[in-house]
């Protein structure tokens, strides 16, 4: 992702991006209008706060999170913003087209909640770009954004209709989806690229402070992300508390275990950036039903250990056997903890009947979530 | 704005600043008291949130926004904070003196909303300082702060009484006012300064990441800025949505067109820092009346193109013909998009009668805004 | 606090930290459950916002605040997060054990407000670590965290029962406690350490921008910190306003007086980082009762002067006479302004009777605060 471009990219990029923009503007002109219904002051405030937190996580958190790993930290932040701004517009349109009310009225009603939902969907592109940074130019990134947002929205809608999931649950598979989509794209790129690009994932001390800044913003605002789409107050309260405990434990685990995982006697920065977030990913699908902190803490502990363990073993098999070069450690930050989250969710549902009366898991609230959040 | 000062500045600065502070404290002692009226919990929370967002934009966003362009990035952030803290105190007093209730009771009632209004007024100094950074010392900056805040408050009050504008509209001319006030001051300084100062606007990669951080905070919190002074819930909802769409489109435009505007084959950082914010400026005066996203998106697209076009053509005529050295690109970030915003607002008002029944523009709400926001 | 460790630390640290984590998980398993009582949407939103602000201050503000002063800025941020995450878990448990309801039911009810209270208590560790940075390894920091949180909770509970203080007042002694606890630990370390470590507190320009970022976040979010534990709406409004005015004046004072305090002709960065926050510390205990801005401004002015004066005189006596090496200027940022805050509080209480009818101090509200904030 050097900022020195060949002639073709320089000329086609503006044309290409402006064509997309004009197409979006025409689609918005013909198919959308703002929601003019009555509005509660409390809802306005809540949605504004949620939308701001999601914007901070997307533009700043994920932008700086990946900025340590390349020669051009600055361009990664700018490209991240580009993909976010493009992805949000496309996701708003897609989510509108896929709603039932569109088939009836032929109009998409843009509510305040539309934007943060769309921004969360667009974040799947920002996550998966971590796997092929430095291998794609801005033209390719534009195309990836549109394709991945489309694919994610399709998968989300399928999950909601087939498995009868609510908005929150279908969104929480974003981490697994993004990680494996990113790795697949990285695998395609690794075939077409010449050798000798391995030297690019060098870190510098000053830029690793920026990456720490990005990770910290993600860490601090993750409870907002996990509770953003929940409708019931009790579900949101549990989501905030569980996510916080899981993140606290995974941060302690990451920082203390990191020194063990390396042959040299140093704490590794990249481990910690990745592993401290693993806890938030691991409680994603179940954060609104777990009703005791200890279970969230165990998930955080496991996610931290998996993430640090993955960083020790996985690069070898990924790099050498599958020839994927996972630039940002996507697989062990988002992929494996996301799978852990999915397994936990399935286990909790399987034992639903026997645990219903247990005070530890409060699965009745889960059904109350099914009402859409607006 | 080097941090090495002559003897006179070192000795007079503390005296000068402390004299201002003591004068402010005496004015506050004799003329102000806190509002002790009944208070709604929701309002407290809203005003606290708005005030925090404005503080983040002023202290952090505008502080770091200009930090890439000088040898002393750190001092620009500190001086920015100094001017913000001084300007807020003066703006609170001035706004109180200019209110009708002061002439009746002889007391300024300080409400929670006073602080964010004052902070927004003080931001005009932080914007216009971008034009004469590196040319003024801290003594001159203190004086500029007091003079500019006074001038801006006077203009704002005049606008409100002559053109019957509401608080939001009169505030939104801040960008145009700040840009041309800054350029005027820069023109005065450029005459008195010796030649050979042009080498000072060099950027460094690590500090441009800080500038990106500042720009991102401005970008993310701009919807708060544009909706802060609106009274009606519906106006605030529209303002948030329109600002967001305009910013998204101007970010995409800025990043994609930037490469075209430069003879070398590189994306330019300063262009993007400036142009990605132009969308937020361009919808400032009309964000609460536009009732379809596509118009906001078109304004964002135009603002982005104007800003990038300006950066290509304007420095030549400004630097060579008028001998103004616009250090931070104030003219094409805030000046021109602010003029676009004013023209849009006038056009919307002119066609008011013919468009009243159109669903696209909702000008009736505009009149509801006239009730003061507290 | 180099990141190169001897064998023993590398092996024992994970064992030690994971043992603590497992113990915490067991304690949470047997003694805690989430509050499942009815919940108001407004409270949920408020506590989420407060908790986020406190997290930003702890993880980001205090983390970067101390990052300028060492060779390894990155590890200071990571260690700060480690201590915060560990301290919060321990503080939640301790505060639960010390509550009356625990002795009745044998269960700790974890509410949303528990986390931000615990995070504020855990911040005493993050403040006092500034005095012995670069002298302790991560094993020692873990132990310090647990000991200091225990000591602070004990002192807080004693204050509440003996002096009949409310939650807000007992929390506001955190600055004094943390400063002198930190200096005591630094004094112990300075005896056991070999000489020749004085060269470690060098600053670099790029990392001092990070320290400025941390300071700015502390500066902007301090009104949240001072109003977080107040129950009455009027107290919170006053706390926000008073804290803001005190901070504004201390920032102006710090930046203008700084040049005087140094033999070289330069504004000193570390002075400003410290002195601009002194105002927030100085109004801590009285921010909810002061009912005119001028008194808060005078406290801010005094705190700024004390802080800059301290930085000129204190290092000499501390370093040479007492042999304490106060790495981060803890004594004059948190210690002395905290004492000023305590003295103001006592003076206001002593003159309570004669000033009760004065409009300047509103001590009746203070009694209303005694009702716990949830």
TrEMBL record, chains A, B, C:
Superkingdom, natural source: Eukaryota
Key words, A-Z: Membrane, Transmembrane, Transmembrane helix
Ranges in a coiled coil: none
The Ammonium transporter AmtB-like domain, residue ranges: 22-354
UniProt subcellular location: Membrane
Membrane topology category: Multi-pass membrane protein
Membrane-spanning segments: 12-34, 46-66, 72-94, 115-133, 172-190, 202-222, 242-260, 297-318, 330-351
Database matches in InterPro entries: Ammonium/urea_transptr, NH4_transpt_AmtB-like_dom, RhesusRHD
UniProt similarity note: Belongs to the ammonium transporter (TC 2.A.49) family. Rh subfamily.
Protein name listed in UniProt: Blood group Rh(CE) polypeptide isoform X2
Biological source species: Erinaceus europaeus
């Amino acid at each position: 992702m050097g900022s020195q471009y060949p002639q073709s990219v320089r000329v086609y990029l503006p044309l290409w991006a402006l064509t997309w923009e004009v197409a979006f503007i025409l689609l918005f002109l013909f198919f959308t209008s703002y929601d003019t219904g009555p509005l509660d002051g409390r809802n306005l405030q809540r949605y504004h706060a949620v939308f701001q937190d999601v914007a901070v996580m997307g533009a700043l958190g994920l932008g700086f999170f990946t900025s340590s790993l390349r020669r051009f930290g600055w361009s990664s932040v700018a490209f991240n913003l580009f993909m976010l701004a493009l992805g949000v517009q496309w996701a708003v349109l897609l989510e509108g087209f896929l709603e039932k009310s569109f088939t009836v009225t032929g109009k998409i009603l843009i509510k305040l909640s539309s934007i943060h939902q769309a921004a969360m969907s667009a974040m799947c592109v920002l996550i998966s770009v971590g796997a092929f940074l430095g291998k794609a130019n801005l033209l390719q990134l534009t195309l990836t954004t549109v394709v991945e947002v489309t694919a994610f929205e399709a998968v989300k809608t399928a999950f909601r209709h087939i498995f009868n999931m609510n908005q929150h649950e279908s969104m929480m598979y974003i981490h697994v989806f993004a990680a494996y989509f990113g790795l697949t794209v990285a695998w395609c790129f690794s075939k077409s690229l010449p050798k000798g690009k391995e030297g690019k994932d060098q870190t510098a001390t000053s830029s690793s402070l920026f990456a720490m800044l990005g990770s910290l913003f993600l860490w601090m605002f993750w409870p907002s992300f996990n509770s953003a789409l929940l409708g019931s107050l009790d579900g949101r309260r549990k989501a905030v508390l569980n996510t916080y405990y899981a993140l606290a434990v995974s941060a302690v685990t990451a920082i203390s275990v990191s020194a063990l995982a390396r042959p040299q006697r140093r704490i590794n920065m990249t481990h910690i950036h990745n592993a401290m977030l693993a806890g938030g990913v691991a409680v994603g699908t179940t954060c609104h039903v777990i009703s005791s902190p200890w279970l969230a803490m165990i998930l955080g502990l496991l996610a931290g250990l998996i993430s640090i363990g993955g960083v020790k073993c996985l690069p070898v098999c990924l790099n050498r056997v599958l020839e994927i070069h996972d630039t940002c450690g996507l697989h062990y930050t988002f992929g494996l903890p996301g799978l852990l989250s999915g397994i936990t969710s399935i286990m909790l549902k399987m034992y639903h009947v026997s645990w219903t009366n247990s005070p530890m898991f409060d699965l009745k609230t889960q059904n109350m979530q099914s009402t859409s959040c607006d």
